[in-house]
Amino acid sequence: MTKGEGMMKAVRAALMLFILVISLGFLIIWIMMPTSTYKQKWLPSIRAKANSTYFGVQGATLLVYTFPVLSIAVLGCFYLHLGKKYGDHQYIQRNPAESSRLALWKRPVLVKGPLGIVTGIELAFFAMFIALLVWSFSTYLHVSFAKLTPQAAEKKGEHLWQAKLDSAALRLGLVGNVCLAFLFFPVTRGSSVLPLLGLTSESSIKYHIWLGHMVMTLFTSHGLCYIIFWATTHQISEMLKWDKIGVSNVAGELALVCGLAMWVTSLPRIRRNMFELFFCTHYLYTLFFFFFVLHVGISYACIMLPGFYLFLVDRYLRFLQSRQRARLVSARLLPCEAVELTFKKSPGLSYNPTSTVFINVPSISKLQWHPFTISSNSNMDPEKLTLVVKGGGNWSQKLYQTLSSPSSMDRLEVSIEGPYGPACTHFLRHDMLVMVSGGSGITPFISIIREIIFRSITHSGNTPRVFLICAFRSSADLTMLDLLLPVSSTPFDISRVQLQIEAYVTREKEPKAENQKPLPTIWFKPNAADAPISGILGPNSWLWLSMIISSSFIIFLLLLGILNRYCIYPIDHNTNKIYPFSSRALLNMLFIFACIAITAGAAVHWSKKQNAMETKQIQNIDCPTPITSPRSWFHNADRELESFPHQSLLQVTKVHYGRRPDLKRFLFESEGSSVGVLACGPKKMRHEVATICSSGLVDNLYFESISFSW
């Protein structure tokens, strides 16, 4: 290790320590929030110090809840930038035996159930979060009920139980806000917070689902309790109340309606059968948060603001990236109704195996964006990015039919978001990798195998032995195995890779000759409107993301200070009037959107300017020139692969017909002090693998369910 690397390691350690201290303080605030100590001592003291003519009461909320999270996000960007620049690969090669206790916590403890596959660590944090919610609700009730007496309720014309119902309804909403504060973190794809926890947005979707169910359960209970309270106290007209200087009930009801629409359409059965309905109704989150802020006021909404603020930054950056059409080079058609799309990418764009991108094809649907796992390797293909689209739905089938139609096609418009993926390749630390796939679940394993091939060629440390178990419905799906090796004119030797493949065709008892047809490839003409894929500012440039977050928030604070000092403060303190809460909230939201749009837009423009020379050099690539029509560009892919060691690949592949793999036997017979078990495919298969690994009969199995998209 050089002196510079040692110093950078020390800087990263200091940054992580600082992040942990801020996180601990933030957690203490959440724990103390429902107590009388916080309300009567801590909060008044903080407000006395933070209150000013520039920020007012909102300043304390920004200081306690918003500033710590945004600080963690900015510091996390610097931490991840240093890790990317000076390499986290040293950590990758670490022997997991050194952290065997932690590995035990990563084993699945729940396999079947409403939560899906849950590891010990996930269950522990889930239990702690539920404990926080129970603690918050019980403490809120204890503090509020202590002040309720029959005499006090009688003065308001209420029974004691009605007063308690009113208090409980309010506290249900307060506890729901705890869940809402964390709801947007898992779906912020380019977040710097998730990588700090070793998470990706793809693997964190289930946390968003859990939080969403909790948010809507609590908010629905909050609304129903108030409706019952108003009905029993003859105040049903309160449902139509929009107070200019207090809580707006109408806004709360509109927010609840939007939330219920998203909640109902996100139920598994509706989401699977009517995906477009689920996709469109989920955009109601904008109206939900808009009416929520009008309901509670901007000062209190700042408690939930940081997660949503980071989400808005990420969402706008993704919007800017998606406006550019990607340079599609070719499409390779497979007999199993799958297609491999190859795009041109910027050489500076790097990504790790199992990364995903979201693609949009306007000719099929202008609104639909679908995630797909990248099958290429950025080390082996520095200027290409490939992904596999398998016909599993209407959109995928339309794409395959469009490309395989007899009509000529020289260009297909495609937009790209991403890539998104893990910060480093932890699977390489194992002695052996057992990869179990079903159908198109083999896609993420293609990128892993290519990474292992690259490391074996370049002698980049030890590489694990690989045992691939793949199950397909028909022999036509076996052509997916042809994608394990990249199309390249440069020969390479895979003899150093210890690879074994067991392929199972479950619905056929013998191979079919027609599946041996060559794979046709369509080459597309270059177009000046298309550009190579460049990374979103975030995972590909953490420093740019830190600049956007910090500068946009500073500009927001400046605008907020001007608004409070010259508009709100004079009215609130020099007249008998109070500045309307709704107007205050609307102006705050307008400032937030404007600051993010200006800073993110400027950063993207400057980044494009910096990459202009690089883009110019690779914009026009060498490609076959059609003699007659683009359809004549079809060629035999086998000719391209003559330089590849396909014979070696065939020698390590065994194909079995008419039966399913005996996963228990394969996993129990796996040799090595550390065996990483990766499962990707149908839920039933993943549950089976997870059950075997969690049984405890074999100590050297370390399970991971790979998130994939196809």
From TrEMBL:
<feature type="transmembrane region" description="Helical">
    <location>
        <begin position="250"/>
        <end position="267"/>
    </location>
</feature>
<dbReference type="InterPro" id="IPR017927">
    <property type="entry name" value="FAD-bd_FR_type"/>
</dbReference>
<feature type="transmembrane region" description="Helical">
    <location>
        <begin position="168"/>
        <end position="188"/>
    </location>
</feature>
<dbReference type="GO" id="GO:0140618">
    <property type="term" value="F:ferric-chelate reductase (NADH) activity"/>
</dbReference>
<feature type="transmembrane region" description="Helical">
    <location>
        <begin position="209"/>
        <end position="230"/>
    </location>
</feature>
<feature type="domain" description="FAD-binding FR-type">
    <location>
        <begin position="321"/>
        <end position="426"/>
    </location>
</feature>
<feature type="transmembrane region" description="Helical">
    <location>
        <begin position="12"/>
        <end position="33"/>
    </location>
</feature>
<keyword id="KW-0479">Metal-binding</keyword>
<dbReference type="InterPro" id="IPR013121">
    <property type="entry name" value="Fe_red_NAD-bd_6"/>
</dbReference>
<dbReference type="InterPro" id="IPR013130">
    <property type="entry name" value="Fe3_Rdtase_TM_dom"/>
</dbReference>
<keyword id="KW-0408">Iron</keyword>
<keyword id="KW-0560">Oxidoreductase</keyword>
<keyword id="KW-0812">Transmembrane</keyword>
<dbReference type="InterPro" id="IPR013112">
    <property type="entry name" value="FAD-bd_8"/>
</dbReference>
<keyword id="KW-0406">Ion transport</keyword>
<feature type="transmembrane region" description="Helical">
    <location>
        <begin position="115"/>
        <end position="137"/>
    </location>
</feature>
<feature type="transmembrane region" description="Helical">
    <location>
        <begin position="53"/>
        <end position="80"/>
    </location>
</feature>
<feature type="transmembrane region" description="Helical">
    <location>
        <begin position="586"/>
        <end position="606"/>
    </location>
</feature>
<feature type="transmembrane region" description="Helical">
    <location>
        <begin position="542"/>
        <end position="566"/>
    </location>
</feature>
<dbReference type="GO" id="GO:0016020">
    <property type="term" value="C:membrane"/>
</dbReference>
<dbReference type="InterPro" id="IPR039261">
    <property type="entry name" value="FNR_nucleotide-bd"/>
</dbReference>
<keyword id="KW-0813">Transport</keyword>
<protein>
    <recommendedName>
        <fullName>ferric-chelate reductase (NADH)</fullName>
        <ecNumber>1.16.1.7</ecNumber>
    </recommendedName>
</protein>
<dbReference type="Pfam" id="PF01794">
    <property type="entry name" value="Ferric_reduct"/>
</dbReference>
<keyword id="KW-0472">Membrane</keyword>
<keyword id="KW-1133">Transmembrane helix</keyword>
<dbReference type="GO" id="GO:0006811">
    <property type="term" value="P:monoatomic ion transport"/>
</dbReference>
<comment type="similarity">
    <text>Belongs to the ferric reductase (FRE) family.</text>
</comment>
<dbReference type="GO" id="GO:0046872">
    <property type="term" value="F:metal ion binding"/>
</dbReference>
<dbReference type="Pfam" id="PF08022">
    <property type="entry name" value="FAD_binding_8"/>
</dbReference>
<dbReference type="InterPro" id="IPR017938">
    <property type="entry name" value="Riboflavin_synthase-like_b-brl"/>
</dbReference>
<dbReference type="InterPro" id="IPR050369">
    <property type="entry name" value="RBOH/FRE"/>
</dbReference>
<feature type="transmembrane region" description="Helical">
    <location>
        <begin position="298"/>
        <end position="317"/>
    </location>
</feature>
<dbReference type="Pfam" id="PF08030">
    <property type="entry name" value="NAD_binding_6"/>
</dbReference>
